[in-house]
Design brief:
Elements: H1 8-14, H2 17-23, E1 35-36, E2 42-45, E3 50-53, H3 57-76, H4 80-99
Antiparallel strand pairs: 1-2, 2-3
Helix pairs in contact: 3-4
Length: 114
């Protein structure tokens, strides 16, 4: 059906998050995405369904290991969406630790044959 192009930017600017989520083939039925609090002092990590202080090295380092476990479990069950969420969370937490002066580059996800 040919016709006038739809103005997606205008459409998205008027939608609530719930409307986006309900109408998205990616987000419908999935967990909420990971998100920082408005003041960036907390982070909700979707792959763990937990929140952490963004300046707590001990908690973030432990979260990194838990995210790796979540990724590995999703990989074994071919849970590609969960793998993608865990990979994004892993990168984000690794970045937070780096900003806090902790070298977490030795931690990595094993993605071979993914």
């Amino acid at each position: 059906m040919a016709g006038k192009e739809f103005n997606w930017d205008k459409h998205f600017s008027k939608l609530s998050w719930n409307e986006v989520r309900e109408n998205s083939p990616v987000f419908d039925g999935q967990r909420l995405p990971s998100l920082f609090s408005p003041d960036n002092t907390r982070i909700y990590v979707s792959s763990l369904d937990l929140e952490f202080a963004t300046d707590d090295v001990r908690e973030l380092a432990a979260a990194l290991e838990d995210i790796k476990t979540t990724f590995d479990m999703a990989k074994r069950s071919n849970g590609y969406y969960k793998m993608a969420m865990a990979k994004s969370d892993f990168s984000t937490v690794q970045g937070l630790l780096s900003q806090l002066g902790v070298d977490e580059s030795s931690h990595r996800l094993v993605e071979d044959s993914v």
